Predict the structure.
Amino acid sequence: MKPKKIPMRMCVGCREMKEKRELIRVVRGPEGDVSLDPTGKKSGRGAYVCRNAECLKRAIRQRQLERQLEVVLTEEVSEYLKRELETLSEKAEPEIG
């Protein structure tokens, strides 16, 4: 039996190829709204970033997200994405104690 192929995607922040499930999708929906898509199932144009804040910040600073999503990110949207990623990261990390 052939092993199942693991889908790979490139992080737009660090430009590294990683397994799709290790990354988080940023999506521009049909109405033009930009949000994080932890499930990877929202409709719209997507780009992938690592689950750490540095990659997201770099992708925003270098305008990689804007290029990939074909949209201009406002300061409010950028801040919203950073907050969302922090919230997701806190949920994903096991609590110590």
About this structure: The mean pLDDT is 90.
